[in-house]
Amino acid sequence: MRILAFLLAILHALTAMPAAYAQKNVPIVRDAEIEALVEEYAQPILKAAGLSRSGIEIVLVNDPNFNAFVAGRRIFIHAGALLTAETPNEVIGVIAHEAGHIAGGHQERLRQQLARAKTMAVVALLAGIGASVAGATTNSGQLAGAGVGIAAGGSEAARRSVLGYQRTEEATADRSAIEYLERTGQSPRGMLKTFERMSRDLALAGINVDPYQLSHPVPRERIANLQSLVAASRFADRKDPPALQLRHDLMRAKLAAYTAGPNAAARLFRDPGGLPRAYADAITAYLYGNPRDALARVDRLIAAQPRNAYFHELRAEILVKANNPQEAANAYAKAISLAPGSPGLLQVGYGQALLSTGAPDLIRKAASELKAGLTREPEYVNGYRFLAQAYGQLGDIGAAELATAEGHFHSGQYRDAKIFAARAQTKMKQGSPGWLRAQDIIDYRPPDK
């Protein structure tokens, strides 16, 4: 039975990695500017794929490697993919490929293929055990060895069956991605560039690949197929709009400054007078320098783009660090007024700044802004700590306990969440909205993994 357990472990590792990754405490990037831009990239593609009303969520993973995958209704994109992609079109191509997996129902069929592979492995194992038993009873070492060979051969056949299925689905997702890009009038050249880069990385690493051991198509075959599809596209030579390219460069500069060290942006953007480099320099001054220098730099950015919500957000963060919460709150309010959509993350920052003023007349407004922001961004767990503080200062201990319970709940710490929810209920009127929410937390049973 150890052979069976080992085989099933291999199959699970090969085919269920994205789901397992999503179940772990994945380091997530939460940033209003980056999320808004990636959402803008994704929406036309999701609409073309028939997924615009399917509740698809884009999740940014704090990982420097170039990678993206799907798990359930979520598309996970590594920060390294955004940092490496030189144009919006490259990221859009990645999103289109992953949308192809979701629209094609590949995850469900992969589970079915895994079940079939497990059956193949079990049959091979039983056949091998039978041959081994026969060899033992006849004192035939050759027959017993053949039994081991049957079991091992069966496991290899099952593994290759799953990998072969995955290669087929990857190729299908590539074709679907090209179709979505065509429907939205966007070039597939960025997608081709992405896979060419991946192929070069393999070559530079000196990796020789066995095509039967891969879960993705052989790089040269994939690139050849994509080159043919790009050549046939009406939009092959269409460029990203300059304004979108600038926003993309600002995003990359921001990621470089926050995740890759103080000199990373200078390696990406050689022009010291360009806006992306200036943005990264302002963030670097905020992180590693002094607030006065950082504030002067961000004020120059705002002078260049006075309606850029995220320059005002950076100004607010610098002012918080400089212990000037009132001015920080004003900067957050300005950022919220300029940001697209409903910027929940900015509202949480605004509420935190109001709370930091310590002014009694602003605490209630702080609680209101924090609650509104967390209603839009319920999984932004850091905000619940500030909401609990605000309610505590207002003397509403039951609401403070419930906010703490919510923080634990959305962190996956269900035991602690239930303890604080039960404490909150003792301070609330039975049947009130807060009491009922606390009861929901108490009654929650996490799904089986």
Automatic annotation (TrEMBL):
Cofactor: Zn(2+)
GO biological process: proteolysis
Enzyme class of the recorded protein, top EC level: hydrolase
Domain Peptidase M48: 30-229
Record keywords: Hydrolase, Metal-binding, Metalloprotease, Protease, Signal, Zinc
Pfam families reported in the protein's UniProt record: Peptidase_M48 (PF01435)
Statement: the UniProt record of this protein carries the keyword Signal: yes
EC number(s) reported in the record: 3.4.-.-
InterPro entries assigned to the protein according to its UniProt record, in alphabetical order: Mito/Outer_Membr_Metalloprot (IPR051156), Peptidase_M48 (IPR001915), TPR-like_helical_dom_sf (IPR011990)
Signal sequence range: 1-22
PANTHER family to which the protein is assigned, alphabetical: METALLOENDOPEPTIDASE OMA1, METALLOENDOPEPTIDASE OMA1, MITOCHONDRIAL
Sample GO molecular function, one term: peptidase activity
SUPFAM superfamilies, sorted: TPR-like (SSF48452)
Protein name: Beta-barrel assembly-enhancing protease
Top-level taxonomy: Bacteria, Pseudomonadati, Pseudomonadota, Alphaproteobacteria, Hyphomicrobiales
